[in-house]
Amino acid sequence: MNRTRSRIIRFLLRNGPSSCGQIGSELGVSPSAIRRQLDLLTDAGLVQRSATQFSASAEQVQLNAASLEASFQVTVMPP
Question: Is residue 23 a contact partner of residue 8, using CB atoms and an 8 Å limit?
Fold first, then answer.
């Protein structure tokens, strides 16, 4: 996972539901760049979206991260 996506997840876990603008302002990244990363995180199941805000839960992040790690090991690093 790239650094910006990691920072977004940590921000959401610490601060709760937030908009692209709020996240971008806090992280010093443009809202459009944040939005692209949030779309990827949402598709991966690591972030949830409501009408205007994004959120993350530690349980969901842990569950999906473990699933992604397992699929990576199977497809990229066979025994």
Answer: yes
List of long-range contacts for 43-51, beta carbons under 8 Å, 24+ apart: 44/68, 46/9, 47/8, 47/9, 47/12, 50/17
Domains of the chain: 3-75 (1.10.10.10)
> Would you say 1 and 7 are in contact if contact means Cβ atoms under 8 Å apart?
no
Where is pLDDT greater, at 72 or 32?
Answer: 32
Task: Give the separation between CA 57 and CA 59, rounded to whole angstroms.
Answer: 5
CA dist., res. 28 & res. 36, Å (int):
15
- pTM comes to 0.79
